[in-house]
Write a structure and sequence with these properties.
Helices cover 52% and strands 18% of the residues. By secondary structure, the protein is an alpha/beta fold. This is Glycosyltransferase family 2 protein.
Length: 335
């Protein structure tokens, strides 16, 4: 029986404190997996260095030099966590592909459970955090608020605790390589929205063994905006809703003012004027802000710039320059 291939994509950004421990931990987990019921699986590790400024690049190159099953991709600069995962998926040759972080919050011990679900016929295996020891009160509350608002305004409903720790079949990976190539993207949303048979597994997120979270409040806010503009048109219609409500209120206020003036023969015109000014300026700037956000998204897509640019690669059979070259090469092979 020919062996199946497992590809594990690991996003790396300034993780010098944890990389060696991560490699030791995941290799031990994979060795145990091969010794037991999953001995028909081979694996490759694809580390994507997202423009790290510390010694992560040197450490990854040492990994690749010692083990040819370890592939390394170095970006020309920092393109972001999702770009790193997309680059790894573009290069993954496995039948089953797992994306995870290098900080060990995504436990490698969960890999056999994910493979077991894949062998049952699932194409998408989502990992939902049952517990996250590193997430504080503010992060948990803002996460709940985001998903609550998003699911209320979008026809696509997302699971709240699903993380960037997931597994996909090669079938799904091929679709992600040819479609869903927006510059403003929400990969976690794509995985949940792409269809196919899927299952959700719960896991306990561990504490970081070193370093710190790379997601500041500003970055999280930008991710939320990208998700909203990727999957919902409701904000575009918010101006219409607010304008309609404002129109009804304005007519009601105008009638009230007219009746009051007719009965009492007096009225404060300045208050009325100020009310209308504040009301319509609020609506105007709300609509302009929403339009500006969507126009900005359209501008980024029209530019057609690459999601990422690769500077160097290690142990990679095919040499790719950037994600556009990946699409072209994949297309030639399929033909």
């Amino acid at each position: 029986m020919s062996k199946k291939m497992l590809s594990i994509v690991i996003s790396v950004y300034n993780e010098e404190d944890v990389l060696k421990l991560f490699l030791k931990t995941i290799q031990e987990a994979l060795k145990k997996m091969q010794e037991k019921q999953f001995d028909i699986w081979d694996y490759e590790l694809i580390f994507v260095n997202d423009g790290s400024q510390d010694t992560s690049e040197r450490i990854l190159d040492e990994f690749a030099q010692k083990d040819t099953s370890i592939k390394v991709v170095h970006f020309s600069r920092n393109f972001g966590h999702e770009a790193a995962m997309i680059a790894g998926i573009d290069r993954a040759m496995g039948d089953f592909i797992i994306c995870m972080d290098a900080d060990l919050q995504n436990p490698p011990e969960e890999i056999p459970r994910m493979i077991a679900q894949y062998e049952l016929g699932y194409d998408v295996i989502l990992m939902a955090r049952k517990e996250n020891k590193d997430a504080g009160f503010r992060k948990n509350m803002t996460s709940k608020l985001f998903y609550g608002v998003f699911n209320a305004v979008s026809s696509v409903k997302f699971e709240q605790s699903v993380s960037d720790f997931f597994g996909i079949s090669q079938t799904v990976a091929k679709i992600l390589r040819s479609r869903y190539r927006e510059v403003n993207r929400y990969l976690r949303g794509y995985i949940q929205n792409i269809g196919f048979q899927r299952v959700i597994l719960e896991y306990k997120a561990k504490e970081r063994v070193g370093g710190h979270s790379k997601y500041s409040f500003h970055k999280l806010f930008n991710v939320a905006l990208d998700a909203l503009t990727c999957f919902s048109k409701t904000p575009l219609r918010a101006g219409l809703y607010v304008g309609g409500i404002s129109g009804v209120l304005s007519i009601g206020l105008l009638l009230y003012y007219g009746i009051s003036y007719w009965i009492h023969k007096e009225g404060n015109g300045m208050i009325l004027l100020c009310f209308f000014l504040f009301l319509f300026f609020t609506v105007l700037f709300l609509v302009l802000g929403i339009m500006g956000e969507y126009i900005g998204v359209l501008l980024e897509e029209v530019k057609d710039r690459p999601i990422y640019i690769v500077r160097e690669e290690r142990n990679q059979e095919e040499e790719f320059i950037d994600e556009k070259e990946v699409e072209r090469t994949r297309g030639e092979k399929s033909n």
